[in-house]
UniProtKB/TrEMBL annotation:
Official protein name in the record: Transmembrane protein EpsG
Transmembrane segments: 6-25, 37-54, 105-128, 135-152, 158-174, 181-204, 210-229, 302-329, 341-359
UniProtKB keywords: Membrane, Transmembrane, Transmembrane helix
């Protein structure tokens, strides 16, 4: 079942998703020591199932799909060939080893491999938003309508596998169990080395929202933008011993002029709202929202740098933090605005994100 009409990504949310919300009762559960109202596991997973199927059955016409299908074909069909195959892989051996294991041990097809990877990725997203978001449907909607689903689950699969493994560190970050979190981050880095970025970010994101670390981080972002030439030189030197060697030369030769400012603005809205409604966040002092606020600020800062440098390389890094914004935004709307205003703002946000979805899919990517 190849998805050729991308409008179905939204249609299912407004039909099946809302029907599931109406049919299945919500229940109470403990989240960070507080009783919260949450979606049940069954409806949350059912809403995600079509997206797993669509990602698994996509054709080669979008993003890196053809390259991933080629990598699957190159993987050995026999486990005895695994060692020799991995010797030929120079980066991200964990990912290619996983693909080879699925092919040689479980004899899955390329579609089966894509679907298993998509299933893991999206079920982690379901777990994250069902557990920590006060409005699961809205958080899931933001993930789809922002085009993160298409950008990552139908394109940057290798990095997004690392991202979703890193998301599993969320309860460890909330409980400050850093050793357990570091273990998962190191595992994720075998899928995509960029996951190591989360080691410093994990510590930067701790504490109250808009704390001194956040202010210092934003000052460094501003300095990087103002002195972008020196920043890129430092970055190029720092990356020489990694798989991103010559990164700056690559994005220059490719004519990569940075992330689209509209995308930067869209992704920065939760962080902007957190500054406007900081007193409400401080009064609530919810550990989940505190973490999500700081992660949203971090992702906005990295996006600002990517706008002045590279959308292909730097613009791919905020995903490790930006997914937390989809937990933050529904909470902000609910707690910063009055009840009637919150409903109007929610509707306006849904319309605005649908508009962004159309812009990105129609004009930026030309698939609608």
């Amino acid at each position: 079942m190849t998805l050729t009409n991308y409008w179905w990504l939204l249609i299912w949310l407004f039909t099946g998703g809302l029907a599931l919300a109406a049919y299945f009762p919500k229940h109470r559960e403990m989240v960070c020591g507080k009783v919260e109202i949450r979606w049940g596991v069954v409806p949350a997973v059912l809403m995600a199932v079509p997206y797993i199927v669509w990602a698994g059955c996509r054709n080669d016409g979008f993003g890196d799909t053809a390259a991933y299908r080629g990598a699957f074909k190159d993987a050995p069909s026999s486990f005895s060939e695994m060692s020799a195959y991995l010797d030929t892989i120079t980066k991200d051996k964990g990912f290619y080893g996983l693909v080879a294991a699925l092919k040689s041990l479980f004899h899955v097809s390329d579609i089966g491999c894509f679907m298993l990877l998509a299933g893991f990725q999206l079920l982690v997203i379901v777990w994250l938003y069902r557990k920590y978001s006060s409005f699961y449907w809205f958080s899931f909607f933001l993930f789809i309508a922002s085009t993160d689903y298409v950008s990552w689950m139908q394109n940057g699969v290798r990095q997004f596998l690392a991202v979703t493994i890193v998301l599993l560190t969320t309860p460890f970050m909330l409980k400050k169990k850093y050793i357990s979190a570091l273990f998962l981050i190191i595992l994720a880095s075998t899928m995509h080395q960029s996951a190591l970025l989360m080691v410093p970010l994990m510590f930067i994101a701790q504490g109250k929202p808009w704390n001194r670390r956040m202010i210092l981080f934003l000052i460094l972002v501003l300095v990087a933008i103002l002195y972008v030439g020196k920043f890129t030189s430092l970055l190029d030197n720092a990356m020489q011993e990694t798989q991103y060697a010559n990164m700056v030369n690559d994005w220059t030769s490719w004519g990569d002029d940075g992330t689209n400012p509209l995308r930067v603005l869209i992704y920065s809205i939760p962080a902007i709202l957190s500054f406007i409604g900081l007193k409400y966040i401080q009064e609530a002092n919810d550990p989940v929202i505190n973490l999500c606020t700081n992660m949203s600020i971090i992702s906005s800062g990295i996006y600002l740098v990517s706008m002045a440098t590279s959308g292909v390389f730097i613009g791919r890094l905020p995903i490790y933090a930006s997914l937390y914004s989809y937990i933050l935004l529904p909470w902000e709307i609910e707690h910063i605005f009055m009840r009637k205003s919150a409903r109007l703002v929610t509707v306006a946000a849904v319309v605005a994100y649908c508009g962004f979805f159309y812009y990105q899919m129609r004009f930026a990517w030309g698939v609608l």
